[in-house]
Design a protein that fits this description.
This protein is an alpha+beta fold. It has a single domain, classed as NADH Oxidase. Helices cover about 40% and strands about 15% of the residues. The protein has seven helices and four strands, in the order H-H-E-H-H-E-H-E-H-E-H. It has helices spanning about 5-10, 25-35, 55-60, 70, 90-115, 125-130, 165-170; strands at about 45-50, 75-80, 115-120, 140-150. A four-stranded antiparallel β-sheet has the order 1-2-4-3, with helices on both faces. Helix 2 (about 25-35) runs antiparallel to helix 5 (about 90-115). The N and C termini lie far apart (about 35 Å). About 35% of the residues are buried. The protein binds flavin mononucleotide (FMN). Flavin mononucleotide binds near residues 68, 120, 122 and 159.
Protein backbone atom coordinates (compact mmCIF):
# COMPACT_ATOMS: atom_id res chain seq x y z
CA UNK A 1 0.00 0.00 0.00
CA UNK A 2 1.31 3.45 -0.92
CA UNK A 3 1.73 5.51 2.25
CA UNK A 4 -0.03 8.55 0.81
CA UNK A 5 -3.02 6.45 -0.31
CA UNK A 6 -3.21 4.80 3.10
CA UNK A 7 -3.31 8.19 4.80
CA UNK A 8 -5.89 9.88 2.61
CA UNK A 9 -8.21 6.84 2.34
CA UNK A 10 -8.14 5.83 5.99
CA UNK A 11 -11.32 6.71 7.82
CA UNK A 12 -12.33 6.03 11.39
CA UNK A 13 -14.58 2.97 11.56
CA UNK A 14 -16.92 2.01 14.39
CA UNK A 15 -18.32 -1.30 13.19
CA UNK A 16 -16.13 -4.41 13.36
CA UNK A 17 -16.42 -8.05 12.30
CA UNK A 18 -16.24 -10.84 14.88
CA UNK A 19 -12.74 -11.80 13.77
CA UNK A 20 -9.64 -11.62 15.95
CA UNK A 21 -6.50 -9.73 14.97
CA UNK A 22 -3.75 -12.35 14.43
CA UNK A 23 -0.79 -12.20 16.80
CA UNK A 24 1.76 -11.44 14.08
CA UNK A 25 -0.36 -8.52 12.88
CA UNK A 26 -0.76 -7.29 16.45
CA UNK A 27 3.03 -7.44 16.86
CA UNK A 28 3.47 -5.15 13.85
CA UNK A 29 0.83 -2.71 15.11
CA UNK A 30 2.53 -2.50 18.50
CA UNK A 31 5.96 -2.14 16.91
CA UNK A 32 4.64 0.72 14.75
CA UNK A 33 3.56 2.52 17.92
CA UNK A 34 6.84 1.82 19.70
CA UNK A 35 8.89 3.23 16.82
CA UNK A 36 7.17 6.63 16.91
CA UNK A 37 9.57 9.42 17.73
CA UNK A 38 9.09 11.54 20.82
CA UNK A 39 10.24 14.97 21.95
CA UNK A 40 13.78 14.75 23.33
CA UNK A 41 13.48 10.98 22.77
CA UNK A 42 11.79 10.84 26.16
CA UNK A 43 9.47 7.98 25.14
CA UNK A 44 6.67 8.94 27.55
CA UNK A 45 4.08 6.62 25.96
CA UNK A 46 3.14 3.13 27.15
CA UNK A 47 0.52 0.82 25.69
CA UNK A 48 -2.06 -1.35 27.43
CA UNK A 49 -3.55 -4.02 25.14
CA UNK A 50 -7.07 -5.27 25.83
CA UNK A 51 -8.61 -8.19 23.96
CA UNK A 52 -10.87 -9.68 26.61
CA UNK A 53 -14.49 -8.59 26.02
CA UNK A 54 -15.20 -7.92 29.69
CA UNK A 55 -12.08 -5.78 30.03
CA UNK A 56 -13.04 -3.81 26.91
CA UNK A 57 -16.52 -3.21 28.30
CA UNK A 58 -15.11 -2.02 31.63
CA UNK A 59 -12.91 0.52 29.89
CA UNK A 60 -15.65 1.53 27.43
CA UNK A 61 -17.78 2.56 30.43
CA UNK A 62 -15.26 5.35 31.08
CA UNK A 63 -16.12 7.21 27.86
CA UNK A 64 -19.25 8.81 26.40
CA UNK A 65 -18.91 7.57 22.82
CA UNK A 66 -17.27 4.19 23.05
CA UNK A 67 -19.69 1.54 21.77
CA UNK A 68 -17.19 0.67 19.03
CA UNK A 69 -14.89 -0.66 21.78
CA UNK A 70 -17.40 -3.46 22.40
CA UNK A 71 -17.31 -4.96 18.89
CA UNK A 72 -13.61 -4.26 18.30
CA UNK A 73 -11.56 -7.39 19.04
CA UNK A 74 -8.55 -5.27 19.92
CA UNK A 75 -8.34 -2.14 22.04
CA UNK A 76 -5.10 -0.33 22.82
CA UNK A 77 -4.85 2.37 25.47
CA UNK A 78 -2.07 4.93 25.09
CA UNK A 79 -0.78 5.85 28.53
CA UNK A 80 1.48 8.77 29.42
CA UNK A 81 3.90 8.36 32.29
CA UNK A 82 3.99 11.08 34.99
CA UNK A 83 5.01 14.61 33.95
CA UNK A 84 3.82 14.07 30.39
CA UNK A 85 0.08 13.95 31.03
CA UNK A 86 -2.21 16.19 32.96
CA UNK A 87 0.08 16.50 35.94
CA UNK A 88 3.10 17.78 34.02
CA UNK A 89 4.82 21.13 33.68
CA UNK A 90 3.47 23.27 30.81
CA UNK A 91 6.00 22.14 28.20
CA UNK A 92 5.72 18.44 28.93
CA UNK A 93 1.97 18.82 29.17
CA UNK A 94 1.85 19.65 25.49
CA UNK A 95 4.50 17.32 24.15
CA UNK A 96 3.21 14.16 25.85
CA UNK A 97 -0.15 14.13 24.07
CA UNK A 98 1.62 15.00 20.81
CA UNK A 99 3.89 11.98 21.24
CA UNK A 100 0.87 9.78 22.03
CA UNK A 101 -0.84 11.05 18.89
CA UNK A 102 2.15 10.10 16.78
CA UNK A 103 2.17 6.57 18.23
CA UNK A 104 -1.59 6.28 17.74
CA UNK A 105 -1.51 7.32 14.09
CA UNK A 106 1.45 5.00 13.43
CA UNK A 107 -0.54 2.07 14.83
CA UNK A 108 -3.71 3.02 12.97
CA UNK A 109 -1.88 3.23 9.65
CA UNK A 110 0.07 -0.01 10.23
CA UNK A 111 -3.25 -1.71 10.99
CA UNK A 112 -4.91 -0.15 7.95
CA UNK A 113 -2.23 -1.64 5.71
CA UNK A 114 -3.32 -5.04 7.07
CA UNK A 115 -6.99 -4.35 6.25
CA UNK A 116 -7.80 -3.45 9.85
CA UNK A 117 -9.68 -0.26 10.54
CA UNK A 118 -9.80 1.69 13.76
CA UNK A 119 -11.28 4.58 15.67
CA UNK A 120 -10.20 6.49 18.78
CA UNK A 121 -12.34 6.40 21.91
CA UNK A 122 -11.94 9.23 24.41
CA UNK A 123 -12.03 8.49 28.11
CA UNK A 124 -14.21 11.23 29.54
CA UNK A 125 -13.83 9.84 33.06
CA UNK A 126 -10.04 9.82 33.15
CA UNK A 127 -9.77 8.75 36.78
CA UNK A 128 -12.03 5.76 36.19
CA UNK A 129 -10.04 4.75 33.11
CA UNK A 130 -6.80 4.88 35.10
CA UNK A 131 -8.42 2.71 37.75
CA UNK A 132 -9.73 0.12 35.25
CA UNK A 133 -6.24 -0.18 33.76
CA UNK A 134 -4.63 -0.30 37.23
CA UNK A 135 -2.26 2.49 36.23
CA UNK A 136 0.42 3.51 38.72
CA UNK A 137 -0.07 6.92 40.37
CA UNK A 138 0.34 9.89 38.05
CA UNK A 139 -0.07 7.88 34.85
CA UNK A 140 -2.70 9.17 32.46
CA UNK A 141 -4.71 7.67 29.58
CA UNK A 142 -4.06 9.93 26.59
CA UNK A 143 -6.53 8.07 24.39
CA UNK A 144 -7.77 4.63 23.47
CA UNK A 145 -7.91 3.12 19.97
CA UNK A 146 -10.33 0.37 18.90
CA UNK A 147 -9.12 -1.91 16.08
CA UNK A 148 -10.80 -4.57 13.98
CA UNK A 149 -11.66 -5.83 10.54
CA UNK A 150 -14.39 -3.54 9.22
CA UNK A 151 -17.92 -4.85 8.95
CA UNK A 152 -20.56 -3.51 6.60
CA UNK A 153 -19.98 -0.61 4.24
CA UNK A 154 -16.62 0.13 2.65
CA UNK A 155 -14.73 1.91 5.43
CA UNK A 156 -13.38 4.48 2.99
CA UNK A 157 -16.82 5.74 1.98
CA UNK A 158 -19.28 7.96 3.79
CA UNK A 159 -16.48 10.07 5.16
CA UNK A 160 -16.90 13.35 6.91
CA UNK A 161 -15.76 16.10 4.56
CA UNK A 162 -12.73 18.12 5.60
CA UNK A 163 -12.61 21.90 5.59
CA UNK A 164 -11.38 23.53 2.40
CA UNK A 165 -7.62 23.50 1.92
CA UNK A 166 -7.68 27.30 1.66
CA UNK A 167 -9.05 27.48 5.19
CA UNK A 168 -6.76 24.77 6.55
CA UNK A 169 -3.46 25.90 5.06
CA UNK A 170 -1.84 29.29 5.58
CA UNK A 171 1.31 30.34 3.78
CA UNK A 172 4.19 32.24 5.38
CA UNK A 173 1.87 33.76 8.02
CA UNK A 174 -1.76 33.43 9.12
C1 LIG B 1 -8.42 12.78 19.95
C2 LIG B 1 -9.60 12.09 19.30
C3 LIG B 1 -10.61 11.58 20.10
C4 LIG B 1 -11.70 10.93 19.53
N1 LIG B 1 -12.66 10.39 20.35
C5 LIG B 1 -13.68 9.68 19.79
C6 LIG B 1 -14.67 9.07 20.62
O1 LIG B 1 -14.64 9.15 21.85
N2 LIG B 1 -15.65 8.39 20.01
C7 LIG B 1 -15.74 8.26 18.63
O2 LIG B 1 -16.66 7.61 18.15
N3 LIG B 1 -14.83 8.86 17.83
C8 LIG B 1 -13.80 9.56 18.37
N4 LIG B 1 -12.85 10.13 17.56
C9 LIG B 1 -12.95 9.97 16.10
C10 LIG B 1 -13.38 11.28 15.40
O3 LIG B 1 -14.76 11.47 15.59
C11 LIG B 1 -13.01 11.13 13.92
O4 LIG B 1 -11.60 11.19 13.82
C12 LIG B 1 -13.62 12.18 13.03
O5 LIG B 1 -14.99 12.03 13.05
C13 LIG B 1 -13.12 12.07 11.58
O6 LIG B 1 -13.49 10.81 11.10
P1 LIG B 1 -13.08 10.34 9.61
O7 LIG B 1 -11.59 10.34 9.52
O8 LIG B 1 -13.68 8.97 9.50
O9 LIG B 1 -13.66 11.31 8.62
C14 LIG B 1 -11.78 10.80 18.12
C15 LIG B 1 -10.77 11.33 17.32
C16 LIG B 1 -9.69 11.94 17.90
C17 LIG B 1 -8.59 12.49 17.00
Amino acid sequence: MIVYDAIVRKRDTRSFADRPVPDDVLDRILQAGRMAGSARAAEPVRLVVLRDADRRAELAACGNSTTHMLSAPLVIALVLVPEFGQVGAPFTLFRGPFDAGRAAQNMMLAAWEEGISSCPASMHDEAAAAQVLALPAGHYVANVIAFGYPEGADPTTGTRPRMAAAEYIHWESW
